[in-house]
Amino acid sequence: MIQINHLNKDFGTKSVLRDISTTFNAGVTNLIIGQSGSGKTVLMKCIVGLFEPTSGDILYDGRSFVGMSKQERTSIRREMGMIFQSAALFDSMSVLDNVLFPLDMFSSLSAKERLRRARLCLDRVNLLEAENKFPGEISGGMQKRVAIARAIVLNPKYLFCDEPNSGLDPKTSLVIDELIHDITKEYGMTTVINTHDMNSVMGIGEHILYIYDGRNEWEGSKEEVFDSNNEKLNNFIFASDLFRKVRAAEQHSHSNGS
Ligand SMILES: Nc1ncnc2c1ncn2[C@@H]1O[C@H](COP(=O)(O)OP(=O)(O)OP(=O)(O)O)[C@@H](O)[C@H]1O
Ligand SMILES: [Mg+2]
After folding, report:
1. Whole domain around residue 173: which residue ranges?
2. Which of 17, 38, 57, 236 shows its CA 20 to 30 Å from the CA of 107?
3. Are residues 129 and 204 in the same domain?
4. Facing residues of 59 across strands?
5. Minimum-distance ligand to the CA of 35?
6. What pLDDT does 186 receive?
7. How far apart are CA 225 and CA 235, in angstroms?
8. What is the Cα–Cα distance from 52 to 14, expressed in whole angstroms?
9. How many CB atoms are closer than 10 A to CB 253?
């Protein structure tokens, strides 16, 4: 569980995050949504410690991140897996070596055990057969799956994904979403996903935090998202052309009695 308490982040005189409080529970896919520039990435970077918040705190299962020593932060970072916008694989390393990398850096397992663990994770994302390929030789969706395998190889308690579907077609996005959702359940991870993909919201939006202009504007589940009276949220959702069409099609089929 990650608790955010009254988090503020300013850059100079520019206030980007304003008094954000929320809770991300374990075993749940927590989505952060909001329009471009609303502060999703800045929030995620504050949570993982890439940015220092101006004020407020982040509690990792009760442990205050802001008050931690450098050493304590280093150890908590080992409990985090991250997948950023670009898959950010090492191009000169094979798929297998990419997944092995965190193990080689941080684990005390034997070489044989590390290999076993890396292959297990590659198998989990259905990529065992591609282990000797290089990132440049596989598709964008496959690269994302390698990034997921690499992110979970150290068995993280917390998983962070910033726009995991960027650059992917809708069908591949669905595969990635379901993979992230399933491994979240399997390992009981606290997973936080930044997205502006409405398909993801409707697919895996167990807990959704809608940020508007750096503020926590609305929170709820995918079941609640359409019944919300929050005007800003409704504008955001229905700005998605697809959703207007789906809604129209639904209403059409209802009025036809089917
Ligand atoms: N290092 C920085 N210095 C100054 N301002 C920044 C910095 N990083 C982000 N910002 C500003 O913070 C605001 C929020 O940016 P952020 O990247 O969090 O948006 P976002 O919601 O992730 O958008 P997108 O959906 O496009 O990824 C923007 O106005 C951006 O210009
Ligand atoms: Mg962003």
Report:
1. 2-79+156-257
2. 57
3. no
4. 3, 64
5. 1
6. 94
7. 12
8. 15
9. 10
9 domain-assigned: yes
Q: Which residues, judged by CB distance below 6 Å to any ligand atom, belong to the binding site of ligand 1? A: 11, 16, 34, 36-42, 196
- CA-closest residue to ligand 1 atom 3: 11
Q: Which helix (H) or strand (E) holds 17?
A: strand 14-24
pLDDT-derived band at 220, boundaries 50, 70, 90: very high
Among 108-117, 205-214, 230-239, the minimum mean pLDDT is found in: 230-239
Question: 84 in a domain, yes or no?
Answer: no
Q: Residue 212: nearest ligand to its CA?
A: 1
Q: Is residue 88 part of a domain?
A: no
- Per-residue pLDDT reduced to its tens digit, 142-153: 999 999 999 999
Secondary structure of the chain: what % helix, strand, coil (to 5)? 45, 25, 30
**Beta carbons within 8 Å of 203's beta carbon, 6+ residues apart:** 174, 177, 178, 181, 222
pLDDT grade, residue 253 (50/70/90)?
confident
Alpha carbons 131 and 107: distance in angstroms, whole number = 20
